[in-house]
């Protein structure tokens, strides 16, 4: 009945191909019959879709189906391929860069981490170095028979909604940096991205191109296949990692709070990120907790970050703020474990400030759970008592406050979230990958 | 391709009937051709749907179409009926009860307001009185040829999500009161709700029934047609009124803050309310603004309500808290207008507290606008300077903070929102109304 039938047909096919991929991904290998039952589609329809996905190199067959495959003759078990497309995730940290490749089954197949002087380097130099790292990981992935299909970059800053432009990243000292052009040809092979995967990627940096501003679609350049590049806030990606990789522990509505140098939150509603009108939602680090408290770089006073941010915490504990982060944080953890009074008091005050900001958040949003990630997860044993006290005392609604979950992903949340977001670019739109991998 | 085709067919028909109603409602009278263009449906499909809505008494024809009706021969202009179903809205206030009837065109056709001793009366007595008021307004509506189709009740308290149960309404002193059973047959005629509309409703209270807990569906009782009853938080309904009645001024993402005796917020995202996991979102009155401030009934300390709630404001201004609200508030307004120092200081401090809570909200949610409603709108001239100062100073994202809009609906927001929500019960599901109005 709709006017635009032809494009709708293609949309329906695209959506159904994607649904089949997710149906196979979530419970693991399944027969065609099991997929049909799960999706409420006919066996015939599913067979057609599956054949297309097999031809496109996104699904493989693994021999006889397991006994829970449903009624009818035993079918062949379907699985997502581990030798087709992969997602590349990158993280720009204050003192490190990291890149990894994750296959369609969700396994990390290649990874590189390096130290970086993010705070004192020019954005261009940081992005050049990151591009090199992406190329290295992409070449490793190709060596494992994988074909990089998309790149997502986690940034500790505000990204304008629907763009790859970092409007502000105070802890990096960045302002209005568009990362897509700088990374344009990163990770791309110099020819078409065929499924063979054994081609070296070392020459891929030659084909620099002018990526469009949004960076979410591959460019039309003949003879090269630049990856679609997406930038997202690190707190957003860490929350998505929690949802995607640890979904048994978090409900589909939750608030994820994480600290690296700054503090950020991500609000997930029914499994989707709340991004905000301009893309700037989740700035819990600048919720005022003590209106007359110390001034903050944002222009406000007494922001949460002034009590529970990594630098504030180190200062309050009398620990050095400069120097290698990992060693400094490990030393603070040891002092807390040994009962050092100043360290314990600093952590207790950080927990109180977190409890104040989270109590306000709970009263506003009524989330199903609160998740602590990043550095906060590492210090949870010392933060939780005062945090939970404030939360319980200040939650207005009847009943207990939402569950507090300590993330098991630690510092890897943003990087894994970025790589899985890139994998989902393929799962969400299988047609675009096939077009790229097998043109015509 | 879907397994459950028959139910899907009915769903598609229901949705398309609803889309036609909204397409006619929003821009005013339109031809069938214009509706077809607007919805991307064929002229034939729209004609079939329109015929069904004309037979069901939801649409009427109004003579030749206006010149902007699109190409082809001039058609007949379609309009929503002003003599078919209507929505009933009710408001339970701390010191008043109100009920109104709104027709499909959005016009208020009947209304009753009475004073009430909500704070000192038993819930049963308040609800009995409200039921009488609903019956009176329903009878007036029938006298205008209208047929009440649904009832929505605005309550100043927490409603458990998906139920009609008021879990807590501190300013009424209510706890665990299910309003649907108490109002079960309110506003219903004793026979089937035919379109004639002239039947007296005075006997409708005889048919008491055991309404199901959720109260959102009419019961199956033969020979009577109890209205579907929905309860919602007053702040939620005030925000929806703003969205539906004043949509030119507010974007589809905004936060609405209103005060009557308490302070509540409603968060609207892409035109939909964020309700929260348990239905308790929007409790901005209990966001801590000064952690060591005065104790609050919620168990917390220094909540926004302790600075900007109506009682807190009156106390700070040295005005009496007891007595008739309207007169007390009018007197405070006069003192402020005359430059009374204590009144101005109280309002300035309330504005500061609002600015603190809203700055946190803006940093968390990045809304497109902030709307001040209820008593806050009435005192806007004296609240805004300090409110805006805090907001500007404490908004972390670059650029100006979101627009501040002062509601033009005043104290009527919750009541109008309730009546329009009831109208939308019909617009959203035209089949349910037809079934009730013309069984078989």
TrEMBL record, chains A, B:
<dbReference type="Pfam" id="PF00480">
    <property type="entry name" value="ROK"/>
</dbReference>
<dbReference type="InterPro" id="IPR043129">
    <property type="entry name" value="ATPase_NBD"/>
</dbReference>
<feature type="domain" description="HTH marR-type">
    <location>
        <begin position="19"/>
        <end position="69"/>
    </location>
</feature>
<comment type="similarity">
    <text>Belongs to the ROK (NagC/XylR) family.</text>
</comment>
<dbReference type="Pfam" id="PF12802">
    <property type="entry name" value="MarR_2"/>
</dbReference>
<dbReference type="InterPro" id="IPR036388">
    <property type="entry name" value="WH-like_DNA-bd_sf"/>
</dbReference>
<dbReference type="InterPro" id="IPR000600">
    <property type="entry name" value="ROK"/>
</dbReference>
<feature type="compositionally biased region" description="Low complexity">
    <location>
        <begin position="186"/>
        <end position="210"/>
    </location>
</feature>
<dbReference type="InterPro" id="IPR000835">
    <property type="entry name" value="HTH_MarR-typ"/>
</dbReference>
<feature type="region of interest" description="Disordered">
    <location>
        <begin position="186"/>
        <end position="230"/>
    </location>
</feature>
<protein>
    <submittedName>
        <fullName>ROK family transcriptional regulator</fullName>
    </submittedName>
</protein>
<dbReference type="InterPro" id="IPR036390">
    <property type="entry name" value="WH_DNA-bd_sf"/>
</dbReference>
């Amino acid at each position: 009945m709709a006017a635009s039938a032809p494009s709708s047909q293609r949309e329906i096919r695209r959506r159904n191909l994607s649904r089949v991929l997710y149906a196979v991904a979530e419970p693991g290998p399944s027969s065609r019959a099991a997929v049909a039952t799960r999706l409420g589609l006919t066996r015939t329809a599913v067979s057609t879709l599956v054949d297309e996905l097999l031809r496109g190199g996104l699904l493989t067959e693994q021999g006889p189906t397991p006994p829970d495959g449903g009624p009818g003759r035993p079918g062949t078990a379907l699985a997502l391929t581990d030798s087709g497309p992969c997602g590349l995730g990158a993280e720009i940290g204050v003192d490190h860069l990291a890149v990894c490749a994750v296959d369609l089954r969700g396994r990390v197949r290649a990874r590189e981490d390096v130290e970086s002087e993010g705070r004192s380097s020019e954005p261009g130099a940081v992005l050049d170095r990151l591009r090199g790292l992406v190329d290295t990981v992409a070449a490793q992935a190709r060596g494992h028979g994988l074909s990089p299909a998309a790149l997502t970059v986690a940034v500790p800053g505000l990204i304008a909604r629907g763009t790859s432009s970092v409007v502000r990243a105070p802890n990096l000292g960045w302002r209005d940096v568009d990362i897509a052009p700088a990374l344009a040809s990163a990770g791309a092979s110099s020819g078409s991205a065929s499924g063979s995967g054994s081609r070296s990627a070392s020459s891929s940096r030659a084909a620099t191109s002018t990526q469009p501003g949004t960076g979410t679609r591959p460019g039309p350049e003949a003879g090269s296949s630049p990856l679609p590049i997406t930038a997202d806030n690190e707190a957003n990606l860490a929350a998505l990692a929690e949802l995607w990789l640890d979904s048994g522990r978090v409900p589909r509505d939750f608030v994820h709070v994480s600290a690296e140098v700054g503090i950020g939150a991500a609000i997930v509603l029914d499994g989707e990120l709340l991004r905000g009108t301009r893309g700037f939602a989740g700035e819990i680090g600048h919720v005022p907790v003590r209106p007359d408290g110390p001034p903050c770089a944002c222009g406000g006073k007494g922001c949460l970050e002034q009590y529970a941010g990594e630098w504030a915490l180190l200062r309050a504990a009398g620990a050095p703020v400069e120097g290698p982060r990992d060693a400094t944080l490990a030393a603070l953890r040891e002092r807390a474990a040994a009962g050092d009074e100043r360290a314990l008091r600093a952590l207790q005050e950080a927990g109180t400030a977190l409890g104040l900001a989270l109590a306000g958040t709970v009263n506003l949003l009524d989330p199903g759970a609160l998740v602590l990630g990043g550095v906060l997860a590492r210090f949870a044993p010392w933060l939780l008592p005062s945090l939970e006290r404030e939360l319980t005392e200040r939650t207005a609604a009847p009943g207990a406050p939402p569950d507090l979950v300590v993330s098991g992903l630690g510092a890897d949340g943003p990087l894994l979230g970025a790589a899985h977001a890139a994998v989902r670019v393929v799962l969400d739109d299988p047609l675009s990958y096939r077009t790229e991998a097998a043109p015509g």
